[in-house]
Amino acid sequence: MPQDANKTDVTADNTNMSYVRYSVPGLDSLDSIPEVYLDTIKAWGWTEQTDQENLEEPNPIFIFSKGETTVHLSLEGNYLTVVVPKKN
């Protein structure tokens, strides 16, 4: 996360997922997650799971995997949300 990001409280309706939401100044003026964020995630060894239909949505969800871990990343307003499915 960028240094100016602030973790915010979020209530999760789905107990099968862990949610972390960050308020990031300046993101609310963007249509998508900045490419530099996505490039950095990939540089850390995460592989993007591409779903072309999803990318046309107003607030697409980006899905990354690394080993057995999957992470969903979405942007809504100036909030960047990270969702991690809990393992059974």
Give the class from helix and strand content and strand pairing: mainly beta
Shape: globular
Q: Give the beta-strand count.
A: 6
Q: Provide mean pLDDT, rounded.
A: 76
Q: Characterize the main sheet.
A: 6 strands, antiparallel
Beta-strand content = 35-45%
Provide an overview of this structure.
- With 88 residues, the protein is mainly beta.
- The protein has two helices and six strands, in the order E-E-H-E-H-E-E-E.
- The protein has a six-stranded antiparallel β-sheet with strand order 1-2-6-5-4-3, with no helix packed on it.
- The mean pLDDT is 76.
Which keywords apply here?
88 residues, mainly beta, six-stranded antiparallel β-sheet, 6 strands, 39% strand, globular
Could you give the topology of this structure?
Elements: E1 6-8, E2 17-23, H1 35-43, E3 47-49, H2 52-55, E4 61-66, E5 69-76, E6 79-85
Antiparallel strand pairs: 1-2, 2-6, 3-4, 4-5, 5-6
Structure, briefly:
Helix content is 15%, strand content 39%. It contains two helices and six strands. The protein has helices spanning 35-43, 52-55, and strands at 6-8, 17-23, 47-49, 61-66, 69-76, 79-85.
